[in-house]
Amino acid sequence: MPGPISAIVGxxxxxxxxxxxxHGWQVLLxxxxxxxxxxxxVAAKPPPPGQPHTSDTTNIAVGCAISLVLMxxxxxxxxxxxxxNKTLVWGMDDWTIxxxxxxxxxxxxxxxxxMVNAGGGKHVYDLTYWELANHxxxxxxxxxxxxxxxxxxxxxxxCFYMRLTAFASRAWMWTHxxxxxxxxxxxxxxxxxxxxxxxxxxxxxxxxxRQNTKPKCLPLFNIGVGYSVWHIFSDCLLFVGKAIFGAVIxxxxxxxxxxxxxxxxxxx
Length: 268
Known about the structure:
The chain is mainly α. Helix content is 66%, strand content 1%.
């Protein structure tokens, strides 16, 4: 969908909105003293005349479509089985995975919006200033939702473990509850940081230009590393919990066979 009249990034602005966007980016990049009428200077240069302008828009669109279909298929199948089988009971793991799937589905939907209105998949030298501003506005939202969805998926897994350990000790159940609380707090912290890591908010590049003040931002690279470390650590805890559950809790439980079979009981 074509947007309003706007110059290509790197060229002089065509409208007052272009000028405001250019100035906002100059302020954000520490070049607020430069004249925005010359346009935004970018390091990437377009290919020579006659050479094709490549784009990943189609690949991203296909990836988004596949991810949406798979999320709908697997989650829908799970919920249908849970709803139609009278021997199965709905639990917190089902509700949590439903919310997690909805959050995860919003991310490719936003990417589809970015491809239509923010030049998603294009090189920066093929974008207009209007598209560049829209892309900047969407980035923190997708960043936060992605990590919230991951946290909810892990909470669903822990809730499923709690179903299986209903017969276990109270200490084991409290371990699960503490882990759920940690994942919940971590998800909330990640969402808040993703949306507020700059003061003022740098998603509205026009407002940055109006205020003519460079936002004070937390180090984004360090934030990303912190997120990765936390999720790798929590993944390890999930794996260790599953291993302990399978080796220590499930195996020693005697079945009807072992109650009346001394050899099997001795093996356990």
